[in-house]
Amino acid sequence: MKTQTLLRIIALLIVLLPGSLIADYRPSMNVTFELKNVKVREAFDIITEMTQQNFVIPSCVESKEISIRLRNVPIATVIDALAAQLDVRVVRLGNTHHLICADDFDPALPLDLPIAISLIDVDVQTILEEIARKIGLSGAHYEGPQQQLTMAVSGIRLETALNVITESANLEQLWVENEIIHAVAN
């Protein structure tokens, strides 16, 4: 049996809690994730098998090895911890997560800025405009079906808030250009 296959089997046995085999990605799903000196691609392949999400690994980290030991934490925390260890940002577009090297990331967007938003039963455009206002951008532009959402968060990172709205509104694309947050949904 190949070492990589054996590693994947062992990691899946470690990672998946009894009865937690899933078909849907739920960032709040709790897992135990323990890997030692594993190639970045192998670690994210395991997460892909668990979540059915795809990960685009940039060349700046593809040859690195990582070790991680987290117990009973949300899968989103595992992804955040791996990103921090690799010094990359994770940008989610649909079911694909793009890891972006620190050198390639736009430092103008303050992703670590803590924000608070409390909006009840409003459309996606209104939520995006409020996020833009809170971080000093000039506005937002949303293309997609009209949906009413509630977003009530306090003290979370901007990056987390953007991930929440991406998931809640099923956004396929989310980017900032010319001081405006742009978002596209199905």
Write the layout of secondary structure elements.
Elements: H1 3-15, E1 30-39, H2 40-51, E2 54-56, E3 65-74, H3 75-86, E4 88-93, E5 96-101, E6 114-123, H4 124-134, E7 139-143, E8 148-157, H5 158-168, E9 171-177, E10 180-185
Parallel strand pairs: 2-5, 7-10
Antiparallel strand pairs: 1-3, 4-5, 6-8, 9-10
Helix pairs in contact: 1-2, 4-5
Report on this structure:
With 186 residues, this protein is of the alpha/beta class. The protein has five helices and ten strands. The protein has a three-stranded mixed β-sheet. The chain starts with a helix and ends with a strand. The model is unreliable at 1-24 (pLDDT under 50).
Outline type: globular
Name the strands of the widest sheet in spatial order.
Answer: 2-5-4
The total beta strand count reads 10
Please, how many domains?
2
Note the main sheet.
3 strands, mixed
In the CATH hierarchy, what is the architecture of the largest domain at level 2?
3-Layer(bab) Sandwich
Helix content: 25-40%
Termini gap: 43 Å
Strand content: 35-45%
The tally of helices reads 5
Work out the radius of gyration: 17 Å
What's a concise summary of this model?
The chain is of the alpha/beta class and 186 residues long.
